[in-house]
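The aim of this short unit is practical: by the end, you should be able to scan a pair of folded records and say something sensible about each. We start with the first protein, listed as its amino acid sequence and then its C-alpha cells.
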Amino acid sequence: MSEEKSNPTPGSAESWHEVGQQFKALGESLAAALRTAWENEETQQHLRAMQAGVESMVTEVGQAMQQVATSPEGQQVRAEVEKAAVNAREAARQSIDEARPQLVSALQQVNAELQKLLERLQGHPPERPPEG
C-alpha cells in the first residue's frame, strides 16, 4: 500500500480515540467485576458446590452409559449409530464435492468486488482481474 493517507474528517480522530477509551474503560470494569466476584467467599462456596454437583452428575452418567453400552440393546444402537455416521460422512463428502465449484466462484466474485472497493478507496483506477 502507498503511504499516502486521505485526510480524516474533522473530529474523526478524536471520535476513534474516544471509542478506544470506552473499550479500555469497559475492559477495566469487566476485569474489576470478575476479580471482585472471584474473590468473594460466598462465590467460592457456590463454585465448590457446583463443582461437586457436576462431578456427581458425570459419575452417574458415566455409570449409566457403561451399563447401556454393554447391554444387547446398547450394542445394536451403537451399530446403527456407526452406520448412520458412515452414511452421513459420505453424504457430506458428496455435498462438499458438488458445492466446491460454486463456492470457489462465489469467493472469486467477492474477492473481485473487494479489490474494486479497495482500489476506489485508495483512489486508484481498477485493474482488470486475471482471467482463468
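Turning to the second protein, read its sequence before its C-alpha cells, just as you did above.
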Amino acid sequence: MATGSNGERGGLFQQLSGRLGAGGSMAGALRYPAYRKFFFGQLASVSGYNVLWLAQSWLVYDLTGSKLALGYVGLATGVPAIVFNLVGGVLADRLDQRRLITFTQGSSALLLAILATLTALDVVELWHILVIAFCHGTLSSLEQPARQSIFPHLLDRKELVTAVALNSAIWQGTRVVAPAIGGLIIAGLGTAFALYLVAGGFLFMAFTMATLHVPPIPRTQGKVMDNMKEGLKFIAGSSVFSFLIAMTFFNSFFGMSYAQLMPVFAEDELGVGATGMGFLLTSSGIGAFLGIFIASGLGSFFQRGSLLISGATLFGGFLAMFALSQWYPVSLLALFLVGMTNSIYMISIQTSLQTMVPDALRGRVMGVYGMTWSIMPLGAMQAGVVASFLGAPFAVAMGGIAVAGFAVGIASTNVRIRNLGAPAPEPAVAAG
C-alpha cells in the first residue's frame, strides 16, 4: 500500500512539474507563429484592461466619493453586454473576425485617449466617464466573441487545451503585475497617464490583428435572427452547456463584483490607499496565476467536474473571509486564495466549453459565454447598491455565498455535471 501511495503522489508531482516546465505542454501553442503573435497582442490589450478597471474605479471614487457612483459606471459598461454580445457572437460566425477585432480595439483606444485627455486637463466629469464606459462596453461586447472564436484557427487543434490555458494565463498573469503598476502610476504620475497607457495597449492589439495572417474560415449563412436562435437553442438543449454558462454568470455577477468595491475596502475598511489597493488586487492575481497551473496539472488527474465544484465552493468561502477581514495581511492572504480557487474552477469551465463546442456554433456559444463575463459591471452595480445600504463587507460576502451555493446545489442534483471530464467507461467484455 505504501508503494502504491508513493507512486500516485509521484505521478501527480510529475504531471504538475511537466505543466510548470518551460518546455512543457503549456508552451506548446506558442510554437505556432500566428497564435504567438495573437498571444502577445492580447497580452498588451488585457494588461490595458486590468489597468483600466483600476484607474476608472479610482477616478470615479476620487471625483464623487460615492459607492453608488461606482455602480453607475459598472451599469454603463455592462448594459451593452445584455444585447451586443449575442450580436457579436453572430457577427463572429458571419464576418472576418480579424477585421472586427482590429476595428473595435482601435476604436476603444481612441475613446480611452479622449478620457485620458479630459482627465489630464482636469475637466473630466462623471457623465464623461459614463458615456465612454457605455461606448467601450459596446465595442468590447462586439469584439469578445470574435477573439474567443478566432484563436482555435491559429494552431493545431491538439494544442487547443494549452491555448485555453495560455489565454487564461494572460488574464490572470496580468492581474499579478498590472494592478500594482497601475496603483503606483496613479499615485505617482496620475490617472491620466495610466489611461494613456491603457489606450496604447488597445492600439497595439489593433495593429497586431491588422497584420495577422488567418487561414480561411467558413462563414455562417442565413438570417441574423435565425443564427442567434440556433445558438441559444443549442445551449438551452444541453444541461452541461447551460450549467457552464450559468456558472460563469454567477461568477461574474456575484463573485467578481468585489473588484469594483476595492476602493471602498482600501480606503474605508483597511486604510491602505491606492497603492495598497493595487497590491490587494495583485495578491488575487498571483493566486489566480498559480491556480492556472494547478488546474492544468490536476485536469488530467481528476475530472473537471470535481475541480469545478470544489473550486467554486472554496472560492465562495475565501471571498467571505476577505469581506470580513479587518487586518491587511489577512486580506492579502484571502484574496490570494480567492484568485487561486477562481482559476481552478474557471479553467475547468473554459476548457470544457472550447473542447466540446462545434466549430459552426463557436462564435455564438462564445458570444453567450462572453455575455456572462461582460455582465460583470452589472454585478458591480448590484454590489454597489447592496454596499450603499448594508455595507461593502456584506455585499462581497453575499456574492461568495451565492457562487458556492449555486455550484453545490446544481452538482448535487446532476450526475453529468459531477462527472464532467470523466473518462468514458470501457465496454464490457463477454466471458468466453
